[in-house]
Amino acid sequence: MTFFGLQYEKSADTSTAWMTSLADLLALLLAFFVLLFSMSEIKVDRWQTLTETFGNKMSDVTDLVTKTGEAEKNMSMINVPKAIDLSYLEHVLNGKKQQSELLANVDIFRAEDRLVISLAGWEFFKPGTEKESGEVAEVIGMIGNALRHISNRIEVYGHTDPDPITSATAKYPNNWALSLARALSVANELENSGYIYPIRVYGMADSRFNELIYVDDKDRKYALARRVDIVVREAEGRGK
Question: Do residues 159 and 208 touch, judged by C-beta distance below 8 A?
Fold first, then answer.
């Protein structure tokens, strides 16, 4: 090929020799960084502190699960806002009990993290009924009048005796329905008295009849089995 009297020849193939130099450069850089890393010194004290911290934390969690069967962040261990002190509430209710004969047969007692107000006996619930009229409603109203001033979470548990319901004309088909009806009737009375927070209601039937093993008289034992327990918790009832 000729341009302005000068003759050029077209080269055959483009050379790739530069790639060999680039590969050598990359290999040297890699060797350089590996050498820097191998010469670096680990802070032994910081590393030991870090390993001990993780080791102790894992050990604490393992011990907790082993001893209690609960993980550290189970729902039961989440802190919840507490309401009025149960000891103070117990004192207030016992004061009302001393002032009124209607509350004479109401049992009020502490059980671990809760206060139990138990309505038990013939005078409260007869066989097959969920609630007596008259004085029982007044009794629940007096209790509710005290509870309406607190924000504690309240649960109501209905109970029955172990005798099954066999009558075809019975209002409730079984003891579970009867116990739930009893709990609902008491919860409604508490709400009518002014307690404004949600109330949890449970029907227990005769599932806790064995707790009355200390009562020798059968009639008295059956009467105590037909009861409703109002349970006041330490936690707030708002939105629970």
Answer: yes
User: pLDDT per residue over 120-151, tens digit each?
Assistant: 866 677 666 555 556 778 888 889 988 988 88
Cα radius of gyration rounded to whole Å, the chain: 38
The answer to whether the beta carbons of residues 177 and 128 sit under 8 Å apart is: no
Dihedral (CA of 35, 36, 37, 39) sign: positive
Angle 86-91-95 from CA coordinates, rounded to 5°: 145
Looking at this protein, which amino acid is placed at residue 108? I
Cα separation of 60 and 58, whole Å? 5
pLDDT per residue as tens digits for the range 175-198: 999 999 989 989 998 999 888 889
Phi, psi for 153 (deg, rounded to 5):
-75, 135
Model-wide pTM > 0.90:
no
What amino acid occupies position 170? A
**Residue 186, φ and ψ in degrees, nearest 5:** -70, -40
Task: Mark out the alpha helices in 41-174 (DSSP H runs).
Answer: 44-68, 86-99, 135-147
